[in-house]
Design goal:
alpha/beta; 6-stranded parallel β-sheet; binds iron/sulfur cluster; binds 5'-deoxyadenosine; 4 domains; Transcription Regulator spoIIAA; 14 helices; Rossmann fold; 23% strand
């Protein structure tokens, strides 16, 4: 008797830790897709991996410091498993390039536009031959790659619509790590959104550094961000559409009216202000001033009074005076954001500020100002959340609440997190709840 045995090539396993922004989370999904072609499957257990990588962030110094610590941990692992490949990809790979290899601690350094070369680089790695590719591209958008979704719930998918950034905000390292702005083919975005909808996802978030400057030009058509939003919203009335990040200088009336015209485009705009002082905004090269920002907020609220607004704020940028800081506080008081990401200014090598402006606000004063900003925002968040009490909101049910597994949780259209009793409600459905109480970050509903 003859037995035929088919030998399946052993799959290798890849483990990736992701740091930084949501764009990076989506990039990790693209990387898993590329690695699948090279025979790697995803693992969430670092110890069983043949390849461990960190997808890194350079935006502030403390983000990079954390990653140096992780490289140490990966190398500890390598002691027990000498064949282990350790890789650094993403923004820090781009920024530090061969400096990372010089430390002799990593085998692989790959920048944000070079993920397609991963299979080739992995093949070429040897004990004495680490590999690097940090070429930035003017075209790469990974449009044809279907990301391997890494979210756990299968409800909300992130879709990159553009890469890079053409704004040269003087504090920001992104244009150097992610290169020039390029928009992805509109048809490929709509296809990906249709695909995730068919797979059961109920929400898509369109991602870009500055979504308002999205512009796709082909021989037959030109599509701007408002038109893209419209096309994605038209896929299905029960597919929620979100987007981030908007830029105050570019968010157009057309985008605001398009949101208002489609119930399934969520009523939430993340609109980073950075500072409330026009003098600081000028030094930051944000290309708008305080009045312009306040006018955009007024327009959004005129058209969509129920629109959630969140922001980013930087404390202690170069030459910031107490008056500039007061201007930030007064703008935050006036606008009343639902939530904010608040940072102390971190000097980043190579940026315009780093080259031309002294980082002259002492660290303890930066932190004092940051704490004042945080305290004000906590008070404002509570006010904004309290103002929802008594309202009925439509919520997308995501699953059990982390704090109380007997309750469910999900986000309202304005992006506020709600918790509510299950009472026969099903995960993945839209449901109506009534707000009865709140904290500064959660609405408690019935
Ligand atoms: N220092 C502090 N915060 C920064 N951000 C960007 N660069 C810096 C920096 N050098 C913040 C901005 C931006 C957010 C993503 O990170 O607020 O909107
Ligand atoms: Fe960090 Fe910016 Fe890179 Fe995102 S794009 S990972 S926020 S440096």
């Amino acid at each position: 008797m003859i037995f035929f045995v088919t030998l399946q090539p052993m799959k290798k396993r890849a483990y990736i830790e992701t740091y930084g922004c949501q764009m990076n989370v989506n990039d990790t999904e693209v990387i898993f897709s590329i690695l699948a072609d090279a025979g790697y499957e995803r693992t969430e257990v670092m110890e069983e991996a043949d390849l461990v990588m960190a997808n890194t962030c350079s935006i502030r110094d403390n983000a990079e410091q954390r990653i140096w610590g992780r490289i140490e941990v990966f190398n500890q692992l390598r002691k027990a498993k000498p064949a282990l490949i350790v890789g650094i990809v993403g923004c820090m790979a781009e920024r530090l390039k061969d400096k990372l290899l010089d430390t002799r601690k990593v085998d692989l350094v790959v920048g944000p536009d070079a993920y397609r070369s991963l299979p080739r680089l992995l093949e070429a790695i040897g004990p004495e031959s680490p590999q690097i590719d940090v070429l930035l591209s003017r075209e790469e958008t990974y449009a044809d790659i279907t990301p391997v979704r890494t979210d756990r719930n299968g409800i909300s998918a992130f879709i990159s619509i553009m890469r890079g950034c053409n704004n040269v905000c003087s504090y920001c390292v992104v244009p150097y790590t992610r290169g020039a702005e390029r928009s992805r083919d509109a048809a490929s975005i709509v296809r990906e959104a249709c695909d995730v909808y068919q797979k059961g996802y109920k929400e898509v978030t369109l991602l870009g550094q500055n979504v308002d400057s999205y512009l796709w030009k082909s021989e037959t058509e030109t599509v701007n961000f408002a038109q893209l939003l419209e096309r994605v919203a038209a896929i299905a009335p029960d597919l929620r559409v979100r987007f981030a990040t908007s830029h105050p200088k570019d968010i157009s009336d057309e985008v605001i009216y398009t949101m208002a015209a489609h119930k399934n485009i969520c009523r939430h705009i993340h609109l980073p202000v950075q500072s409330g002082s026009s003098r600081m905004l000028e030094k930051m090269r944000r290309k708008y001033d305080r009045e312009w920002y306040l006018e955009r907020v007024a327009k959004i609220r005129e058209v969509m009074p129920d629109c959630g607004l969140t922001t980013d704020v930087i404390a202690g940028f170069c030459s910031e005076t107490l008056q500039d800081h007061e201007d930030t506080l007064s703008l935050m008081e006036q606008v009343g954001f639902d939530w904010a990401f608040m940072f102390a200014y971190s000097d980043r090598p190579g940026t315009l500020a780093n080259r031309t402006m002294p980082d002259d606000v002492p660290a303890d004063e930066k932190n004092r100002r940051l704490n004042e900003i945080i305290a004000l925002q906590n008070r404002k968040s509570l006010e904004r959340y309290r103002a929802q009490i008594g309202k009925k909101l439509e919520v997308l049910v995501e699953g059990p609440s982390k704090r109380d597994p007997d309750m469910l949780c999900g986000r309202a259209s304005n992006n506020m997190m709600c918790v509510f009793p299950a009472e026969g409600r099903a995960v993945r459905t839209l449901t109506e709840v009534e707000v009865v109480d709140c904290t500064s970050a959660t609405l408690i509903c019935k």
